[in-house]
Fold Cytochrome.
Amino acid sequence: MGSVFGKRYDPTEDAEEFRVLNAIVKEGFELLGVFNWSDYLPWLSYFYDPSRIVAHCEALVPRVRKLVKAIIEQHQLKNQHENNISDNADFVDVLLSLDGDEKLNEDDMIAVLWAIFCVFYTAGDVSDVYNQLEGTEKLLETVAGRVVSALTSQDFEGQSEPAVHYKHFS
């Protein structure tokens, strides 16, 4: 999150802002995963929204706008004294520094920042899952290596491979 908004959220120090941000992100991802009848029956959306997706989105958008707009305003205040982008600038600073035809209006900037933030937010979760899988793979390799070394050790009287004995039932 730090590379997008320029701030690392500490749950102990920024408890309220962190809680709000997590709630907004969670609600947004839940809305993305809700089954929507209108996806399969487009004409239904003219009469009825059974999951109330439109109402939930209409309630979520102002909260997202308020949060991201506050972050943009913090950056604008910070950058009033600086004319150039510093070496430790984040994505908000870069967007604010655009001039001419490249300059984004506020709504576009909010949309871009929120989309990039969501990508980074999910990428963090994906990397955590990947790191856990990588750790599990290393653990399995270690266990497998120890099992193989135990099976090929001197417990089998110098044999390089253990002798397998089958029990026959008659």
About this structure: The CA atoms of residues 24 and 60 lie 7 Å apart. Residues 2-154 form one domain. The longest helix spans residues 106-151. The chain has five helices and no strands.
